[in-house]
Design brief:
Rossmann fold, 11 strands, alpha/beta, 2 domains, 35% helix, six-stranded parallel beta sheet
Length: 322
C-alpha cells in the first residue's frame, strides 16, 4: 500500500514537515509515498525514500485545486493520509489511517505541533540528498577556509535584517581569533535574493588576505543543504534557509523580529535565536499603525548582539572546524 502526504507551499514549512516523512518511512518501510505540495516546496522532496509521485498543488478558483487533487488520489486506497493543510481530503479518500494537523492553541513550535498528530513530542526535520548534490557542494567549496554561511534574504521585507549589518557581522567574525581574516563567507538563498547580498559580494576583493565571498545564490535546495553541512555556522533571517541549515545539523542563529520565534526558531539543539527587544506582537502593531516602518522592524538587533551570540557559541565549543 501507499502513503499520501499533503504539505505546504512554502519551503520553510515543508522543511519543518520532513520529520513526519522520516517517521512514516520508519513505520512503513516498504510503502511508497506520494507527496502533494506547492511548487516551491516540491524542491525539498526530490530524494525522499520510496517516493512514488510529487503532485503539485496550484491554487485555483473555487477550491479547484482540491478537486483536482481528489480526482488524482481517489482511485486508490491509502494506508495512511497525512494532511498538514487541514483540508477535508483525509475524509474524502479511502484510507486506513487519517491524520490532520490541529490548530495551534498552545504556542508550540511547528515541529512539535506537527508531531502531536501522532501523539509524539517532536519529529526532527530530515533532508535527503544524493551524491550529485554532495559533488556540487564539494566543487563550490573546494579549498574553502572556515566557511560561514549567511542568509541575507527572506520572503518578506519585514523579516530582513539590514544587509549592511550582515556585512559588518562578516567583518566582525573575521576579526575573531577563532576564525581569522581568511574566513570565507558563503551566501545562500534564492537567485532573487542576490541583490540583497550585493554589499557583501562587492567587498569580496577587499584585501589580499581576506577570505572569499562565495555566491551560492540560486543553488537548488538539496545542493544548498550539502553546502551548509560544510559550514561552521549559519546566521540567517527567519527564512527557509534558516530551517535548512538547522536541518543540516550545523549551529544556526536565527534573527527574529515581527515573527514568533517560539513557533519558528531553528529547530534542534544547535538552533539559537537573537531577536529584537520588542516582541513580534508589538512590532506587528507598529506596522499596522505605520506601514512604512516595514523596512525597520529588524533594526532592534545590533551587530554586537549577533557577534556576542557567535562568541558564546565559540566559547561553548560548538563552532568546531568541519
Amino acid at each position: 500500500m501507499s502513503i499520501l502526504f499533503i504539505t505546504s507551499t512554502r519551503i520553510g514549512d515543508a522543511i519543518l514537515s520532513t520529520g513526519i516523512l522520516a517517521w512514516l518511512h520508519e513505520q512503513y518501510p516498504e510503502d511508497g509515498i506520494t507527496i502533494a505540495c506547492g511548487g516551491p516546496a516540491s524542491k525539498v522532496f526530490g530524494e525522499v525514500p520510496n517516493l512514488e509521485a510529487l503532485h503539485i498543488i496550484k491554487k485555483q478558483p473555487n477550491h479547484g485545486h482540491w478537486w483536482k487533487l481528489w480526482r488524482a488520489m481517489a482511485p486508490r486506497k491509502w494506508r495512511v493520509v497525512v494532511d498538514l493543510r487541514r483540508s477535508a481530503m483525509p475524509w474524502l479518500l479511502l484510507a486506513g489511517k487519517r491524520y490532520s494537523v490541529p490548530k495551534d492553541r498552545t504556542g508550540r513550535h511547528r515541529v512539535e505541533l506537527n508531531a502531536s498528530m501522532f501523539g509524539l513530542p517532536s519529529l526532527a526535520p530530515k533532508i535527503w540528498t544524493a551524491p550529485q548534490h554532495r559533488e556540487t557542494a564539494e566543487k563550490l567549496l573546494a579549498g574553502a577556509k572556515n566557511p560561514i554561511a549567511l542568509a541575507v534574504g527572506a520572503n518578506w521585507a519585514g523579516k530582513t535584517w539590514p544587509a549592511n549589518r550582515f556585512a559588518a557581522l562578516a567583518d566582525r567574525i573575521r576579526q575573531m581569533q577563532a576564525f581569522g581574516p581568511e574566513t570565507e563567507i558563503v551566501l545562500v538563498g534564492g537567485a532573487d535574493e542576490r541583490e540583497a547580498g550585493a554589499t557583501l559580494l562587492e567587498n569580496q576583493g577587499a584585501g589580499p588576505d581576506r577570505g572569499r565571498v562565495i555566491d551560492a545564490f540560486g543553488l537548488d535546495i538539496l545542493s544548498t543543504c550539502e553546502v551548509l553541512k560544510k559550514c561552521r555556522l549559519m546566521v540567517a533571517n527567519d527564512s527557509a534557509m534558516m530551517h535548512l541549515a538547522a536541518a543540516s545539523g550545523i549551529p544556526t542563529i536565527g534573527l527574529f523580529g515581527p515573527t514568533k520565534d517560539q513557533h519558528y526558531r531553528p529547530w534542534g539543539e544547535n538552533g539559537f535565536v537573537v531577536r529584537t527587544p520588542d516582541s513580534a506582537d508589538t512590532l506587528m502593531a507598529r506596522l499596522r499603525s505605520d506601514p512604512a516602518s516595514v523596512t525597520h522592524l529588524m533594526d532592534g538587533i545590533s551587530v554586537e548582539d549577533v557577534a556576542a551570540q557567535v562568541e558564546e557559541l565559540e566559547a561553548r565549543g560548538l563552532l568546531a572546524a568541519r
